[in-house]
Write a structure and sequence with these properties.
Structural class: alpha/beta
Oligomer: single chain
Largest sheet: 9 strands, mixed
Number of strands: 16
Length: 373
């Protein structure tokens, strides 16, 4: 039996999705949700998107907006981009708020993948006599919250690897110099991708060679993502620039060094021992641990060695690659992968977008099949 096509996007759901996108930088680890409430004549009564963790969800914001404008929502239709929650978490159940307000119908894009909700919100709404329609905007809502869906379903974050390289695929000169291969436009765009993530991940090689801050500076952001460092032997310097930004810093190690661990934690870091084979950090276990710490999206900015390890272990879902119009020749590549002996061993990708950023080209490519969960 063929799958039926998804319901068409209504203008109301499109507007709710735009609202959800507006809140994307503040909502992690919660999903980004938008809600629009209309009366039976199609007049807007209230709108809102989910706030920062611990704050109101989209439905409550929309109800408050309607009340502030003196609008009754009794008998109205709520368009929301994710199933209204049905459990007591950091806030109360949104479906109860909709029921109490007298909403007549709820049009939702997609069910919440959180097992604490997952269909129960819809059931509670229907039990209260509210008509529920599900489907319009499902693909768009899921894509907007792909990290949240990944964490809830796969128990691992969505991992996006950023690479800046020359047209011949080199990320640094043979002597290690890499600042700057790409343009100011590309670097600002890279900071925008950092800003939407829950955590930026790098390796100790990058820390020791570049002493980077790896925070968001080139675009406005209401929060700094966490920082994750893969540091098998706990070599992170206590005066590293990583400590400048106010944010959570997780350092994963494989070799126990309790004295250095205590010193790093005195600087505000959290050190986690996760030994794997060959004296390295167990990268797959690290991703599972990050999911338990409510990390939805991981943004990787690392050297070719760690990049290669993450790709080889099948932990990378998507690539954001900036290509500068120049040839470097000898130098470091994007990832230490090879050598393959057959073309069939190559990792299949799907291009999602290609865009010009100043003189550079940005390619977003997804590992084939990684989003089928």
């Amino acid at each position: 039996m063929q799958n039926s096509p998804p319901p068409p996007l209504t203008s109301q759901i499109q507007r709710a999705l735009r609202l959800a996108s507006d809140g994307r930088l503040i909502t992690p680890p919660n999903p980004s949700i938008g809600c629009m409430i209309f009366d039976s004549g199609g007049h807007l009564l209230g709108k809102g998107h989910t706030q920062a963790v611990g704050g109101p969800h989209a439905e409550v914001m929309a109800l408050r907006d309607a009340a502030e404008h003196g609008c009754s929502v009794s008998g109205a239709i709520a368009y929301v981009t994710l199933e209204p929650c049905s459990h007591h978490g950091r806030t109360g159940p949104c479906c109860d708020a909709l029921i109490a307000a007298g909403i007549q119908k709820v049009v939702a894009s997609i069910a919440d993948p959180n097992p604490l909700v997952s269909g129960q919100g819809f059931e509670r709404l229907r039990a209260a006599g509210i008509e529920v329609e599900v489907g319009p905007g499902a693909e768009e809502s899921r894509e907007l919250n792909i990290g949240f869906f990944s964490r809830m379903i796969r128990k691992a974050p969505w991992v996006r690897m950023k690479v800046a390289a020359s047209l011949d695929g080199k990320t640094a000169l043979d002597n290690g110099k890499s600042q700057w291969i790409t343009s100011d436009d590309a670097r600002a765009d890279g900071h925008a991708w950092r800003a939407r993530s829950c955590a930026v991940l790098t390796g100790i090689g990058t820390v020791l060679q570049d002493n980077p801050r790896l925070d968001v500076r080139l675009v406005d952001t209401p929060r700094q993502p966490h920082l994750v460092v893969v540091d098998s032997r706990l070599e992170t310097p206590l005066d590293a620039h990583l400590f400048i930004a106010s944010r959570a810093l997780y350092i994963y190690a494989s070799e126990q060094n309790d004295a250095k661990k205590a010193a790093l934690e005195a600087r505000g870091a959290t050190v986690i021992y996760l030994p794997g084979p060959h004296g390295k950090v167990d990268l797959a276990a690290m991703m599972r641990d990050l999911a338990q710490r409510e990390v939805n999206e991981v943004h990787v900015e690392a050297g070719h060695k760690l990049n290669g390890s993450l790709i080889r272990e099948g932990l990378v879902d998507e690539f954001v690659v900036y290509l500068a119009p120049k040839f470097i020749g000898q130098g470091a590549g994007m990832a230490n992968l090879g050598p393959f002996t057959e073309l069939s061993q190559a990792i299949p990708l799907q291009f999602r977008s290609t865009d010009r950023l100043g003189p550079d080209l940005r390619i977003v490519a997804r590992v084939e099949g990684r989003d089928r969960f």
